[in-house]
Structures are given as C-alpha cells and as structure tokens.
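Ticket reopened. Same input as before:
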Amino acid sequence: MSALLQNISLIGDEIPWLGKLRQKGREAFAAAGIPGAKTEAWKYLKPRELDADDYVFSVSATPKSVDALPFDSYRLRFENGRFCPEGSNLPLQAEVVPLVETFMDKEGRAPFYAEQTDWIEKYPFAALNMACLNEGIFIRIPGGCRLDKPILLDCHICCGGENLFSALHNVVVLEGGAEAEFVEYYHYTGEVKSRYFNNIVNQIFIAENAVLHHIKVQDEAFKAAHIAFSPVCVGAGGRYESFCLQLGADIARNETKVMLNRAGAECEVNAAYKVDGWARADTTTDIEHLAPCTISRQLVKGVIGGQSKGIFQGKIHIAKDCIQTEGSQLHKALLLSDGAEVDVKPELEIFADDVKCSHGAAAGELDQEQLFYMRSRGIGQEEARQILIEAYLDEVISKVGNEQIRAWIKLLLHGE
Amino acid sequence: MTTPLLEIEDLHARVCDKEIIKGFNLTINEGEVHAIMGPNGAGKSTLSNVLTGKPGYEVTSGSVRYKGRDLLKLSVEERAREGIFLCMQYPVEIPGVPTSTFLKHAVNAVRKHQNLPELDTMEFIKLLREEGKKLGIGNEMIKRPLNVGFSGGEKKRLETLQMSILKPQLSILDEADSGLDIDALKVVAEGVNALRDGRRSLLVITHYQRLLNYIVPDFVHVFADGHIVRSGDKNLALELEEKGYAGFVKES
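Engineering reply: fixed in the latest deploy. New output:
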C-alpha cells in the first residue's frame, strides 16, 4: 500500500483544508497500518493480505456503454473509481455533485462536513481513503426537501488485467426535515478473477427530523476486496434506516457507526449477506446512544455456503444518563455446508439505567422437513433450496420500504 | 391384463434401525380407492413416507412398482412429478414463501416434466382462482406465507387445493380428517371426490371410519403391526368401527 500512496498525485493539495485532510489520512494510516489478526476489531476478517504493492489507481473513466437504470432514480455513475458524466443524471432540487467540484467551494459546505473525522485513528482503511480524498459525491438535501426519486451511486468496475484501487468518499448531508433515499451499487464486468480493491467512506449527517434511507448492494468480483465505513450522525428526531446486501468479493466489510446525538434520534441498521466459495463477508456495527430517548434496531441475516465465512460484530453503547433508550440487535445465519463458518461478537456497553437492550444470535441449517415438503410437490432439490434461502433472507429484505428497490434486490439475489 | 398402478410386494422398511413395515402387500389399479385403517403405531405414516421417498426411511426388502417401474429408485421429486401426491397429516409452515409462489413452482415443475408449457402468471392465477373457489380458499389466503398461521382446517383445504391443481395419478391421504370439523371435512371430501374420474386412484390412510362416509372406498384393509391383517369392502370399515381394532390385531 505504501507504494500506492507514494505514486499517486492528486490535484488540489494546495487547497489548505484538502491538503490537511489528506495529510491527516496519510499520517493516521501510516501509524495504524493494515490490521491483522491481533487487532481486536479485525480479528475475524484478518485483512493483512490487502497490504500489497501491486494496486494501481485508474487513470480515467472510459465507459463503453452504461447499462439501463435498475429502477427509477437519479444516478451518479463511477467507472473504475472515477466519476463519469455520461451515465449520470442529477436532481435539481438538491445539491448533488461530484466531490471534486466542491473543493473550491467558497461557502465551504463540503469541507465543513468532511473535516469531522474524530474517528480517523481507529479506522485504518478510512484513513487510507482520506489520504486519497478525491473521488466521490457530495449530497446536500436542503431543509424540508423530500427528494422525489432515489439517488443511485452506480459504481462499476470494468476489470482488466491490473489490480485497480478505488477510493470513493461520499458526504451526505440532510438538513432539517429533509428526506432522501441513497443507494450504493457496486458491480463489475470483465475479468472475473480481478483482484481490485474498493475502499469506501460515507460521511452521513442527518439533521433534526430528517430521514435517510440508505441502501447498499455489494456484488463485487469474487477475488475483489471491498472495505466500507459509514460514520453517521443523527440529530433530534432524525432517522437513519439502512439495508446492506453483500453478495460478492473475496474479502468484504461493511461497517456502520451511528451516533444518535440528540433525543428522539433513531436508527435501523439491517443487513443480509449470501456468500459462497472462500469468501469472507463482515458486517460490523457500532451504535452509540449519546442522548436519552434514542432507539436503535438491527437485524442481520446471512447465508453461508462452501468454505466461506460470515462475520458479525455488533456493538451497542449507551452513554451515561441516556435514559429511556432502546437498543436491539439480532444476527441469524444459515449454514449450508460443513465448511461454512460464522463468527459473531455482540457487545453491549450500558452506562445508564432505565434502558431496554437486547441482543441475540442464532445459526442453523436448512429445514429438512421444509425441503421434503417442497420436493414432495415436484419441486427439484436445488430449486427448493434456492426458494428456502430467499425466504430466509426475505425477513430482512422486506424491511426495505421502496417497492422497486426491493424487487431489484430480490432479482439480484436470485441471480438473474 | 393391464399393469396395476401400484404394486407393493412383501415390503419391509425401518426407521432408525426399528422395523416398522413387516411384509406389506397391496395392489392398486387405476381408478380404485383403497382405505387403510389401523390403530396408532401400526406404521400407517411410515408407509406413506416410504411411498413418497422421505429421507430417513429405509426399505430393507420387498418391492414397490408404480406404473410397472421400480418406484424406490426414483427421487422424492421424481415420484411427485410422476403423479404421486401425499396429502400430509401435518403440512409444514414455510415463512417467507407466499403460498401462491410455492404453488406456481410446484405446478410448473410437474408440467415441465410432462412436457407441457409452463403456466404464466395470468394463467396460473386463473387456475388458482377456479380451484380455490371450490374449496373456499380466497385471494387473501394464497398471498400469506405457506401454511404460516393457518388453522388445521385451512391447512387441509390447502393440501386439497394442491391435489386439485396438480391432478396426481395416485393420491395418498394421511389422516386427512385429523383436526377437521364436520363442515371442513365435507369440503375436503368434495375436493378429493372430484378427482375420482375412474382413472385416478386414492389411498386413504385413516384411524377413524368417519372420513370413509364421505370418501367411499372400494377396498378396506386393516393394517396392524406392519402388515395387512384383513381386507374387505367398505363394510369392513363399519365392522371395525363396531368391534374396534383389538379383535383384528389378535387375529394376526
């Protein structure tokens, strides 16, 4: 990784805030390095192998063709980690621009938000992302605005022979009472064995009474790496609802840190994953209840086949005096083979009285009675298994409110 | 002479090393309705599970021929596609799978096997409405997840609906009347009787004679200790009702 960092040259280092942020990222990454098995937060995923020197930055985005929209939405297309105007259409009623366009912003809105990085020392991959701060988007939904369509961040990798490194950094700001849907979609075409690396940070700010629906689908190539971190701040009466589906990649982590900063702030952090082969899919959450009367809910369901591994690390922290707070967390996994593995680490830190907090974890296999029932009606073994797997994940997918997006997710899961 | 639909000869089968079926013989021809009656623990459910190929049931000797072929060589789904249907005593609940979705998969799996074109959604819904109406199964019920939260009667009606749309050659009814009140029993019996077209056959496994008032059998067999101890016509069921199983079990 150090070779990659030495070789990149990014425009805008002379802009004081930007230069400083990148420097901060470089320093934090240099101090932490790529974590291995001995770092508690990464002990299951063990991403040390990502410390390779053969990653290259993509020079330009040259899409051959842009596929149709998967559902009715605005779109920002990224091709090999670079913004691509050809496939993009942007809403007018909100500020949605490639991050680079905000670098010279006189009003300094993007810098104000981007600079809020107290967490950087603890998140080495986010520090690496910050060191490369350049590509990504800035979304600002003005107060009271309800965006009519979802914003789709369509990140496509066209795999060639080289090992691409892409660092996307998105800043999403919802002002008071605003509501929006933000969808991230990571997919690829081309050389299926490509070892590219997608490193993503989403800084999300939800002001009082604003609501963000955040959907993500990770369907990377099977040798790819995908490490994402979303720090989310939620204000009074605000709500953060997320759903992440992980289907691909060799090594993947989706980490969400929600700070419920003011009374009445709520979040729902749901996820599903379906992995096979030798893949490792990690879902890590850290919910901080920092004010009274805050609510968090989490449901994560995984389907693990082959020699693959599912990981769930979920932390709920309730700070002192944060009374009448509710936190719940549930992880369930379906193991399809003897070689499948699941590692679960729930953590509750409660420093207040009068709170409701729960966590649970379960792992099981496909129900033989259900399989027999379906087969006894003529449905083939494989088809029956597929139906049961989709039914298993349906419990969490059904929590996605937007019908079109839900249908799209089911289609991807079905593998059509 | 035509080939019998089902021919079971000296069948022995076990579950978890315990022999349950001990020298069972039965021949069912096209269009015939056979009832098997027996006390609890006689092995009635084991017999239906062996015929449908449920994992965990081991046939140790004997043979089962279906349409002249070795049935025991076929997988569970192959048997179903060839027209064997088990109306289950306790249908399982499958959360997350809408009843209609499940039924469409099943119908099309069977049609595909018969080289018939698969039904599209419109055609399927039409079929489902027509057949559902006869059994008092409305739209609301088929949208719900399969059997989840269904009452005993609803489950049995749904089993009957599946029979009506899959149109099996041989239906095996395992305690089809358990958990049914008299009105539900009549509805189910009507659905089953609608399949009696002189070509399709039924094997009705039951503990009580009651069901046989509504689904009148051509033959009645008394099943005890793993094999048939006596066979007769429908009057045998009445005799059983009167005397109880005790007398017959002793006879064996």
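The mean pLDDT of chain B is 92. The first helix of chain B runs from residue 44 to 52. Please confirm and we'll close it.
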